[in-house]
Design a protein that fits this description.
The chain is an alpha/beta fold. The protein is 51% helix and 13% strand. It contains 15 helices and ten strands. Strands 5-2-1-6-7-8-9-10 form an eight-stranded mixed sheet, sandwiched between helices. It has a two-stranded antiparallel sheet with strand order 3-4. Helix 3 packs parallel to helix 4 and helix 7 runs parallel beside helix 11. The termini are far apart. The mean pLDDT is 96.
């Protein structure tokens, strides 16, 4: 690497790699750290990620198995699977030997299973720097192929408005449009809950319940998402924007959605374990998020009926009984 990286991406999965490709294509010098070392070395040698076969790494993307160079970047991006953040970052920070970025932006979507915390709630005190979130309706392969996409950058209020706009401009490219938000809570919760609801959408699809049922599920799922987001201090407009409605629509209907595929497989008669195993190394975040979201909702007195049924589904309940329970709930006003 000839000069200090402009950005460091921690996590060399499909999403972290796609982001690195997008930013490097627009002129950034990007270090991308990952594990295990042999996978990162293969990425550096072949210049292609196995899940992004149509997209070659630009010359200014530098896959590295040792994070030393990445620590020199002023902005760090965490693209690790949600549940790995509290496990991987303490080890990384030991290796950093006091080096810290201006801020860290995470691109994980989920709620931590053991603590029911959002990712920023864990990483911010751990790093001692502001932590923002990057989320929205973006499949990794489409971003890597330079298809037009839009995403939300949620930054905490500790970053002043002028600097927030600079960061927005830094991460935006000609084909990745970045919208600025100050609602870190809402953006994180929307990114987590949409995965759970996408599992339910896959179930509806597998049971061939029709377009009416899927439209009802997505709409009522959005209402469910909104209740929890607002109760926990997020904003209603986040729920109806890219991080909420946009990402839910993509994940609940897109053929590439792991969470939708998982729900469809379970609805087709596969066991939850078989459905998860079929995804290989890809993580079905909604499986881990479901019970954490329910516990978080119960702690603040919010009902999540669709999420309740997804939890039962993951535990092996009959899919048709889950549908019946939702349809037979007491009638309510919208």
């Amino acid at each position: 690497m000839n000069r200090r990286p402009d950005l460091a991406v921690f996590g060399s999965g499909a999403w972290g790699t796609a982001l690195a490709i997008a930013w490097a294509r627009d002129g950034a010098n990007v270090a991308i750290w990952g594990h295990p070392a042999d996978a990162v070395e293969a990425l550096a040698r072949t210049r292609r990620h196995p899940r992004l076969p149509d997209s070659e790494l630009p010359p200014s993307v530098h896959p590295i198995s040792s994070p030393d160079e990445a620590f020199k970047a002023p902005i760090w991006i965490s693209a690790l699977p949600t549940q790995l953040n509290p496990k991987v970052w303490p080890t990384l920070l030991e290796q950093a030997k006091g080096a810290r970025p201006e801020l860290l932006i995470h691109a994980s979507k989920g709620i931590l299973q053991e603590s029911y915390l959002r990712v920023s709630q864990v990483l911010e005190p751990m790093l001692g720097v502001p932590v923002g979130a990057l989320s929205g309706p973006t499949f990794a392969d489409e971003v890597a192929r330079n298809n037009p996409s839009a995403i939300v950058l949620a930054l905490p209020e500790s970053i002043d408005d002028a600097r927030a706009r600079e960061l927005q401009a830094l991460l935006a490219t000609q084909r990745l449009r970045v919208y600025l938000s100050r609602d870190v809570v809402g953006v994180e919760l929307c990114g987590a809950l949409k995965n759970v609801l996408a599992i339910a959408a896959g179930l509806v699809e597998a049971l061939e319940l029709g377009h009416n049922a899927k439209a009802a599920l997505i709409t009522r799922g959005l209402a469910e998402m909104g209740r929890l987001v607002e109760k926990l201090g997020g904003h209603a407009e986040t729920v109806t924007g890219l991080a909420g409605m946009g990402d839910l629509f993509l994940t609940a209907t897109g053929a590439q959605s792991r969470n939708r595929r998982f729900g469809a497989m379970v609805g087709s008669g596969h066991s939850p374990k078989a459905a998860s195993d079929s995804m290989g190394e890809q993580v079905v975040e909604g499986v881990f998020t479901t019970d954490a979201a329910l516990s978080l909702a119960r702690s603040v007195g919010v009902e999540l009926p669709i999420t309740e049924e997804v939890s039962r589904l993951i535990q092996g309940a009959d899919p048709l009984e889950a549908v019946a329970r939702l349809m037979q709930r007491s009638l309510k006003s919208e």
